[in-house]
Amino acid sequence: MQAAVDLVLRQGFYKTRVVDIAKAAGVGKSTFYEYFSSKDELCIELFSIHVLSRYQQLPAELEKAGESAAERLRRFFEMEMQLAREFSVASNLIVEIMPGINEEGCPFQKEVERFLLLRYELLYDILKYGVDRGEFKIYSLSQSTLTIAGAFSFYCGVTCHFLEGESFPKRGSHFDISEWSDEALLQQMLRGICA
């Protein structure tokens, strides 16, 4: 599977053929089809293994740790940053696939929707845990979840270089990311929601 990941990241999803993946993995094309019905299915499986599974495991880890809501939020953010940094090399792949995500028949749409819902529910549960314990004072759980998820996503996108087009602001403008840090963002979030 790692051969497929490396190849797709290097060549792009649409330029990579099943025969290329099979060759890189040291197997025949027919062997590939014994495990996967298509390149799409392989990529969905990889996404599930490398991304979704981490989000699915986090609630049990947080419950077992019994941490404060602020620490749970910190662990959520640290996991997001770790994933973003691990997959920053995939930014071209994400940009390549995302424009067609809403097209009819897009094989990735259901997985992306599952991911976004899982991420939202996990963050919502962390915030609700904080409200229930009196740690967080939040006007609207759903709006706060959306706001924090958006801030985390934007921060990850910029600091992990997912957002780097010609039209994107460069350093030296009022948009200076050299002042940004993971801890500063997290502290800013906590100042806004802690009771």
Can you give me a brief rundown of this structure?
With 195 residues, the chain is mainly α. Helix content is 68%, strand content 0%.
Mean pLDDT: 80
Please give the alpha-carbon distance between the first and last residues: 46 Å
Computed over alpha carbons, the radius of gyration is: 19 Å
Total count of helical runs of at least 4 residues: 9
The largest β sheet comes out as:
none
User: Total domains, how many?
Assistant: 2
H and E string: HHHHHHHHH
Number of strands: 0
What structural category arises from helix and sheet content?
mainly alpha
The fraction of residues in strands falls at under 5%
What CATH calls the topology of the largest domain is Tetracycline Repressor, domain 2
| Residue share in helix | 55-70%
CATH homologous superfamily annotation of the largest domain: Tetracycline Repressor, domain 2
- Uncertain segments are none
